[in-house]
Structures are given as C-alpha cells and as structure tokens.
C-alpha cells in the first residue's frame, strides 16, 4: 500500500500550494481530483481477488441479505479498504460475483439441512408442509435424487429459469453453486405498483436441487 514519509508529505504540501497559486483554485481542484482518481485506481489494482472476496464476505456476514444491494456492499468495501467513493467501480462485476456467491452459499446451507431430519422432528405445533402441484415431496428425496443424473447432463439439458414477479421477468441460467449443488439463481431490480405508487424492489431467487451435490461431473 502507498505510504508517505513526513518529508514527502511536506514536499507535496508545498507543491500543492505552488500549483494553487500558479494555476488558480479551479484548476488546482481539478488536478487534485485527477490525482485522487489515479491514486485510488493504483490502490484498487493492488487489491487481490482473494482480499476482495474476503472483504465482501466480511461486510455481508451477519447482515440481513434482503436489505443489501450490490452498490451498498461495494461502498462498504471501499471504506474498509481505505478507498474513496467509486474507487472500486471498475471491479463491480467481480464484486457482484462474490456477493452472489455469498448469497448462494447462505441459501444452500439452509436448503442443505437433511429433509428427513426435519420431517422426523415433530414440531411443537402442527404446521402445514410445503407441497407442489404434484403433492408432498418424498421423505428420502435427497437420497433418491443423489444419483438422478450427472452434472454434465444437468448443464446440457436444464433450461434457463424464467420467473414472473409482478409482471417482471427475471432470468437465470443453470449453474453449479460453490457449495457443489446444482440449480439456478436469478436476481435483479423490478418495478412494482403498490397503492398506485411505483416502487423498485431487489429480487434474488435461489433454486437448489436437493441431492445434486452428490452428482458426478
């Protein structure tokens, strides 16, 4: 990372003062802004993918995922890494990848709980079980589907997920999550109407196939 000695800081201060007197305040501000942009870019380039991924995960850990946006996480990471606002804009696609990865892992962990254990543990109060149009899922669904197909078969035969959310279509291609499960992830911003008011909402949908972690490649 960039550090400055006291002598260099003193020299830069005198240089800034001279530039301001020579070029005027407006041009001086422009030069300082350009210097800051270049400085931020150099610092951002020094951030490794591993460090960026770790910082993203640290900023998201323990926070309600539904309240986070890619931009909010990116700004928080910039602050943590000592960059000014917008310092990581050029890495926003990479950051979004790490955000999606974190969300998918969190949802996979929730989905990965053994369905058999959940069915065998009698809850204090009876709750209706989730069903599909075909009826209740089989009790041993994880074991049944563990050898249903291979990863390559899934990738070649699975269609793109298209979901209608209040008239907005969000799409996601089939994928393999970092946890090893196969499925789909679709997300984005959608426009909705509530009480005659136009509102924007962030949607994230994770579809994880139970037992797919066991599929051979």
Task: Walk me through this protein's architecture.
The structure is a single chain. The chain is α+β, with helices and mostly antiparallel strands and 217 residues long. It has two domains: 6-107, no CATH class; 132-214, no CATH class. Helix content is 47%, strand content 18%. The chain has eight helices and five strands; from the N terminus they run ααααααααβββββ. It has helices at residues 6-23, 25-46, 49-60, 70-80, 92-111, 115-120, 141-145, 151-157, and strands at 161-165, 168-172, 174-176, 182-194, 197-208. The strands form two sheets. The protein has a three-stranded antiparallel sheet with strand order 3-4-5. Strands 1-2 form a two-stranded antiparallel ribbon. A hairpin with a 2-residue loop joins strand 1 (161-165) and strand 2 (168-172). It is globular. It starts with 5 loop residues before the first helix and ends in a 9-residue tail after the last strand. 13% of the residues are buried. The model is unreliable at 1-5 and 114-127 (pLDDT under 50).
Globally, the shape reads globular
The number of strands is 5
Q: Can you give the mean pLDDT?
A: 76
Write down the Rg. 25 Å
Counted up, domains total: 2
Main sheet characteristics:
3 strands, antiparallel
Looking across the biggest beta sheet, what order are the strands in? 3-4-5
For the record, give the distance between the C-alpha atoms at the N and C termini, rounded to a whole number.
42 Å
Spell out the helices and strands N to C. HHHHHHHHEEEEE
Which class of secondary structure composition applies to the elements? Answer: alpha+beta
Helix content: 40-55%
The quaternary structure here is: single chain
Strand content: 15-25%
Q: How many H/I helical runs?
A: 8
Biased composition (Acidic residues): 107-120
Organism: Cymbomonas tetramitiformis
Protein name: DEK-C domain-containing protein
Region (Disordered): 107-141
């Amino acid at each position: 990372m960039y550090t400055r000695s006291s002598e260099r800081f003193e020299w830069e201060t005198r240089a800034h003062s001279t530039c301001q007197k020579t070029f005027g305040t407006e041009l001086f501000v422009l030069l300082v802004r350009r210097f800051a942009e270049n400085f931020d870019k150099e610092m951002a380039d020094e951030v490794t993918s591993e460090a960026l991924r770790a910082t993203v995960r640290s900023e998201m850990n323990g926070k309600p995922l539904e309240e986070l946006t890619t931009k909010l996480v990116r700004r928080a990471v910039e602050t943590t890494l000592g960059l000014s606002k917008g310092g990581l804009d050029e890495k926003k696609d990479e950051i979004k990848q790490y955000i999606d990865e974190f969300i998918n892992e969190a949802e996979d962990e929730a989905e990965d709980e053994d369905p058999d254990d959940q069915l065998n543990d009698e809850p204090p109060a009876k709750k209706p079980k989730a069903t599909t149009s075909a009826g209740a899922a089989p009790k041993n669904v994880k074991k049944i589907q563990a050898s249903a197909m291979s990863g390559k078969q899934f990738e070649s035969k699975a269609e793109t997920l298209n979901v209608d959310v209040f008239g907005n279509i969000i799409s996601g291609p089939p994928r393999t999550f970092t946890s090893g499960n196969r499925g789909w992830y679709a997300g984005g911003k959608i426009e909705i109407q509530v009480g005659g008011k136009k509102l924007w909402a962030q949607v994230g949908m994770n579809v994880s196939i139970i037992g797919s972690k066991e599929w051979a490649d």
